Amino acid sequence: MITKIIGTGSCAGSRRVTNQELEQLVETSDEWIHSRTGISTRYLAQEEGSCAMAAEAAKKACAQAGVSPKELDLILLATSTPENCFPSEACQVQGRIGADHAVAFDISAACSGFIFALHTVHSFLVSGTYRTALVIGVDELSKAVDWSDRRTCVLFGDGAGACVVRAEKEGRFCSTIGSDGSRGDILTCQARSGGNFLTGKRPELGFIAMDGQEVFKFAVKKVPACIEEMLEKEGEKKENIRFYLLHQANERIIETVAKRLGEPVEKFPMNIGQYGNTSAASIPILFDELNQEGKLKRGDKLVLAGFGAGLTWGSILLEW
Ligand code: COA
């Protein structure tokens, strides 16, 4: 069996925030942010939170696929910013959309989360364990950002993207994922830190901390290598790829990856200018936009690729 995406949906945070607005918050400028990253605006969640965004994206994906939530066997949700330690975000989405027959759980792979989730779901579908699944990438990094740190606060936005996938007889799907825990310190966000009655410390939440240049170097080296390796293994030529849907972290990273792959940048759709970096949500939001705009034709070969904290990375080749 082969994994086929049969519907997409997305939802961004409810409040659009411009670079000019951030100029009032930290010492920065629209010119600096835009020239270094390509970002002009981002959407931040307010009261709605990540569960509501994920549920909205999920409902849209089910509607587009023509699949009732009751037909879902599995919900796999990728996030680094769940609303609760437990219940999982996936279980909360399950409750909100009435997917009574599914099993639901979260996975964590930061900005590579959606790729890791789709890769994992594929294993369940090809083994015949499940037939229809919902894959969600959602993050609300605005609650993990130090809004007085100009090096990071200008980069991120909140949102959710979802795909309904089904095990089909025909199609194309292959994927590869990787991680390197020894370099994890270049991009971190501490969760509840140590504290119990023995330490006498009160658990605290940390903020995102990043060595931007190291992350940049990692991304522009690892992403093209990972894609090249996958395509070579699959015997697929780059000229047959219609679009490369890359994690939207920085326009310059995407342009550099295109150059290193020797592919025209027009094959790399981008929406970072509007959304900022929405972490695990960025690839499925981009996918949904292309789908809604009618830019995807059945049979198109697409490459998805992500990278992020962990360090983690991965790529997928699929036929739409
Ligand atoms: N506004 C204005 N100035 C800023 C700024 C901001 N928002 N953020 C940093 N600066 C300053 C720095 O303090 C530094 O000043 P200094 O030279 O006086 O010390 C200067 O700009 C250059 O900083 P630097 O970090 O070298 O910039 P850069 O060209 O590497 O761009 C990033 C910074 C973060 C945009 C870039 O490194 C990047 O995109 N890295 C990848 C990050 C990423 O994708 N993370 C998510 C991965 S999933």
List the SSEs and their pairings.
Blueprint: E1 2-12, E2 15-18, H1 19-23, H2 30-37, E3 41-44, H3 49-65, E4 74-78, H4 89-97, E5 103-107, H5 113-126, E6 132-140, H6 150-153, E7 158-168, E8 173-179, E9 187-189, E10 208-210, H7 212-234, E11 243-246, H8 251-261, H9 272-275, H10 282-292, E12 301-308, E13 312-319
Helix pairs in contact: 3-4, 7-8
This protein binds coenzyme A.
Coenzyme A binds at residues 28, 32-33, 36-37, 111, 150-151, 154, 210, 212-213, 215-216, 249-250, 277, 308.
How would you describe the overall organization of this protein?
With 320 residues, the protein is an alpha/beta fold. The chain has ten helices and 13 strands. α7 packs parallel to α8.
Task: Kindly estimate the percentage of residues that lie in beta strands according to DSSP.
Answer: 25-35%
Q: Report Rg.
A: 19 Å
Principal-axis shape equals: globular
Helix/strand-derived category reads alpha/beta
Oligomeric description of these chains: single chain
Could you spell the SSE succession in H and E letters? Answer: EEHHEHEHEHEHEEEEHEHHHEE
Briefly characterize the structure:
The protein is of the alpha/beta class and 320 residues long. The protein has a five-stranded mixed sheet with strand order 1-7-6-4-5, sandwiched between helices. The protein has a four-stranded mixed sheet with strand order 8-13-12-11, sandwiched between helices.
